[in-house]
């Protein structure tokens, strides 16, 4: 019927609870397809009956003839079972196919089979996995061509685009071998993940924008959860006696939290019973709540924050972060503040009030006068523009200090910095002399200060928040607060350590390839920038062929990363190089290859594709490639997760480094890092509301030495960074907790200061809650499910919506869904 186009509804009989039977009794006329979740497959291929009994379902099967009743066979997410069936281990697939016929014969009224096989393997098994589904489909149709086959598929945003590792699944390959397909686009958030929508908009849009291009939309059911999660965020899971923070719940369990029926002290005192109001996430179209949270802030809600912390947004989350460290300075009382203009100079010198630069045999002299004798600090402001412009000699009254820097990863290259010339020096009243002289050509001198107390340190800034806990009204109408005390929980995003940054180039600057920094060794290179963008630094792409390098030919041990985009005309090789070592994508062979000169030193088979001209700027497919050279050992990595592919032994070369390509290629990132030194993205300190101070996040490491000034570590053995630690860092938002704070009271305001010690940490949210328990709760309501059902029908023009699972939903939902029969 035309009125039902795009509005078919599929559910499963997993719950077996009273509400499942109530939904069937009252609203069976709203359901098109039901998967009878009553069958499990073993690794042998044998199918056994388990779960909701078929006998309990027979009254509804006989009553609702319009429903397509499918026998659902599940492996409960066991990879060992999936693998045995796929590989036909000991005849497992053959037995499985015969078992399908057996259960269809046992229940001849069934309309077909629903295959729910999860936890397959990676993309390398996609052909064998597709063949398994082909064999299942052909077996069912050979038995009875009228029998239907539905397949349950993981959410994929592209080939190899599974967030859960289910890359065996290729939608386009499976499309011929099903009558319908239920895409299980729920589970992005789960019990062990950071709190959030179970099915966030960005994920759903990625899945279905892709799915409709490779599958018949009329076959696709849009998967939505009827359930939600309640994540406890007042302590670590192990202290709570749980494996994960989250507890699954139905709509009605969520309703009990909202109405104050439940609490975190076993639904009994001492914690009060407090009704709470839900928020509506208008981007993801889902409700959420904060039970027993008395105040919360997003990162951007800081009353003040200092540079280099910046406010940013991602998927609706407003956070603070810093991308680099700045020098934090203090001078005390400044007695002399002298600019760069010298009193005299000799040799090749470029002078101005703002900067003096020394060339061949260059020297410059400065005089300053003190009104009275005393002990002073003298600081100088310098600039080292490049790795070979890194040395200057400076003297105070003839006492010379040599300023030099040879560390590639040092964070003050190409910027200005202050350094101590003399600390606590006794100077008489009268005139004194500072002289600068050539160490390396091109070093910049910006002036000096004579002051009472100079200090400097690298900083990531800090952010201060004001929290204002207030009493809540409980279910009895009394104004209440925590019985024991408050806890503060910080939601932060940390990352695993990366090579200490030498150069980050995304080509977004106004002058993206200045000749002072870059050299074209061969071919032609240019930068495209999105001139229509209103962004300060618009999206850009490097494009060209030949060799483009940093204008420095003494690189040795480095870590080099590139994000490569292949235009539709591309052929040949493209990648990164240092000296005669070249690591590339060989497009024609679909391999990553490592060469020393013309000698192939190693390779890794993978897959990558071209981007059409229509998408090359707006939606390119990019591929990450990187090498880490340490002496004569070269490691090759690829993918967004920086996966080690192979290691090769090469000559210990030095030379230029950069990007190289046989033919015109595009690149959106070129990153240079140190091969041995790493920068962690993990530690932050907190000044708590009760005045206590705590440090969080720093991991214990071995086989490395620490630089306490810059908070980086250098390996003392040729290891992977992961081998230096036993702890891991979540790739998701994580939670850090204060101790119980009994002194905090409702009705007063309190200050919290977060001080990151590392860059790339996101300050996401702060929660001040009842120390006996508080949480983040997400659930699905009628508005959410109806919204996405309409998107499925009218935006993507799919078959309809499937919902996991019957009996978890708000039963009022069915009033808003169309009857499937007249």
TrEMBL record:
GO molecular function: hydrolase activity
Domain of life: Bacteria
GO process annotations (BP): carbohydrate metabolic process
Domain GH18: start-end pairs: 6-320
Keywords annotated in UniProt: Hydrolase
Entry-linked InterPro entries: Chitinase_insertion_sf, GH, Glyco_hydro18_cat
Any Pfam family: Glyco_hydro_18
Name this protein carries in UniProt: Glycosyl hydrolases family 18
Species annotation: Tissierella creatinophila DSM 6911
Lineage: Bacteria, Bacillati, Bacillota, Tissierellia, Tissierellales
């Amino acid at each position: 019927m035309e009125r039902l186009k795009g509005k078919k509804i599929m559910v499963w009989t997993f719950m077996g609870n009273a509400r499942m039977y109530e939904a069937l009794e009252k609203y069976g006329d709203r359901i098109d397809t039901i998967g009878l979740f009553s069958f499990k497959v073993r690794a042998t291929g044998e199918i056994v009956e388990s779960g909701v009994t078929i006998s309990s379902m027979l009254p509804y099967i006989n009553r609702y003839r319009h429903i397509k009743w499918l026998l659902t066979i599940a492996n409960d997410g066991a990879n060992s079972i999936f693998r045995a069936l796929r590989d036909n281990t000991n005849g497992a697939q053959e037995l499985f196919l015969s078992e399908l016929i057996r259960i269809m014969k046992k229940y001849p009224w069934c309309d077909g089979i629903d295959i729910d096989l999860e936890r397959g393997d990676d993309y390398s098994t996609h052909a064998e996995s597709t063949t398994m589904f082909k064999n299942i489909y052909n077996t069912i149709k050979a038995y009875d061509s009228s029998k239907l086959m539905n397949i349950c598929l993981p959410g994929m945003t592209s080939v190899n685009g599974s967030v859960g590792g289910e890359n065996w699944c290729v939608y386009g390959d499976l499309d011929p071998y099903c009558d319908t397909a239920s895409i299980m686009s729920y589970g992005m958030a789960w019990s062990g993940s950071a709190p959030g929508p179970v099915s966030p908009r960005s994920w759903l849009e990625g899945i279905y924008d892709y799915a409709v291009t490779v599958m018949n939309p009329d076959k696709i059911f849009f998967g939505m959860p009827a359930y939600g999660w309640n994540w406890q965020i007042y302590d670590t899971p192990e202290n709570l006696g749980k494996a994960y923070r989250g507890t699954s719940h139905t709509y009605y369990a969520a309703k009990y939290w909202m109405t104050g029926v439940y609490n975190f002290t076993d639904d009994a005192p001492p914690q009060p019973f407090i009704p709470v109001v839900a928020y509506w996430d208008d981007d993801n179209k889902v409700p959420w709540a904060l039970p027993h949270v008395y105040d919360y802030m997003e990162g951007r809600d800081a009353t003040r924050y200092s540079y280099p912390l910046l406010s940013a947004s991602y998927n609706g989350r407003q956070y603070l972060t810093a991308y680099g460290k700045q020098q934090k300075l203090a001078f005390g009382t400044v007695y002399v503040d002298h600019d760069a203009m010298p009193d005299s100079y000799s040799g090749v010198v470029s002078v101005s009030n703002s900067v003096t630069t020394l060339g061949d045999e260059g020297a410059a002299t400065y005089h300053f006068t003190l009104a009275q004798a005393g002990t002073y600090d003298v600081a100088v402001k310098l600039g080292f523009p490049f790795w070979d412009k890194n040395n200057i000699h400076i003297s105070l009254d003839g006492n010379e200090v040599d300023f030099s820097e040879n560390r590639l990863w040092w964070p003050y290259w190409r910027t200005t910095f202050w350094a101590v010339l003399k600390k606590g020096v006794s100077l008489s009243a009268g005139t004194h002399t500072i002289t600068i002289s050539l160490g390396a050509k091109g070093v910049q001198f910006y002036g000096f200060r004579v002051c009472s107390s100079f200090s400097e340190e690298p900083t990531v800034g800090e952010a201060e928040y004001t929290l204002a806990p207030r009493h809540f009204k409980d279910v009895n109408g009394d104004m209440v607060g925590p019985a024991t005390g408050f806890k503060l929980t910080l939601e932060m995003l940390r990352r695993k350590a990366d090579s200490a940054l030498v150069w980050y180039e995304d080509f977004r600057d106004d002058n993206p390839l200045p000749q002072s920094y870059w050299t074209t060794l061969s071919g032609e290179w240019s930068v495209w920038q999105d001139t229509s963008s209103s962004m300060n630094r618009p999206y850009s792409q490097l494009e060209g062929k030949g060799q483009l390098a940093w204008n420095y030919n003494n690189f040795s041990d480095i870590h080099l990363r590139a994000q490569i985009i292949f235009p539709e005309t591309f052929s040949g090789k493209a990648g990164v190089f240092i000296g005669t070592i070249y690591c590339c994508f060989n497009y024609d062979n679909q391999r990553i290859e490592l060469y020393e000169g013309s000698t192939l030193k190693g390779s890794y088979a993978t897959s990558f594709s071209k981007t059409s001209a229509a998408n090359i700027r707006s939606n390119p497919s990019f591929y990450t490639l990187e090498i880490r050279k340490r002496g004569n050992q070269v490691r090759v990595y690829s993918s967004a997760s920086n996966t080690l592919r192979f290691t090769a032994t090469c000559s210990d070369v030095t030379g230029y480094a950069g990007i190289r390509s046989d033919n015109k290629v595009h690149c959106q990132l070129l990153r240079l890092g140190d091969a041995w030194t790493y920068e962690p993205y993990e530690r932050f300190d907190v000044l708590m509301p009760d005045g206590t101070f705590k440090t969080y996040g720093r991991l214990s490491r071995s086989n490395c030495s620490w630089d306490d000034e810059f908070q980086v570590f250098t390996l003392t053995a040729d290891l992977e960074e992961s081998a230096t630690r036993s702890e891991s860092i979540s790739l998701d938002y994580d939670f850090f907790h204060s101790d119980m704070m009994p002194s905090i009271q409702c009705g007063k305001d309190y200050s919290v200061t977060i001080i990151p010690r590392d860059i790339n940490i996101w300050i996401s949210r702060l929660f001040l809650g009842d120390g006996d328990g508080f949480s983040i709760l997400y659930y699905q309501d009628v508005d959410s499910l109806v919204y996405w059902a309409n998107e499925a029908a009218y935006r993507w023009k799919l078959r309809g919506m499937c919902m996991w699972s019957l009996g978890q939903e708000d039963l009022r939902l069915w009033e808003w869904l169309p009857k499937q029969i007249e």
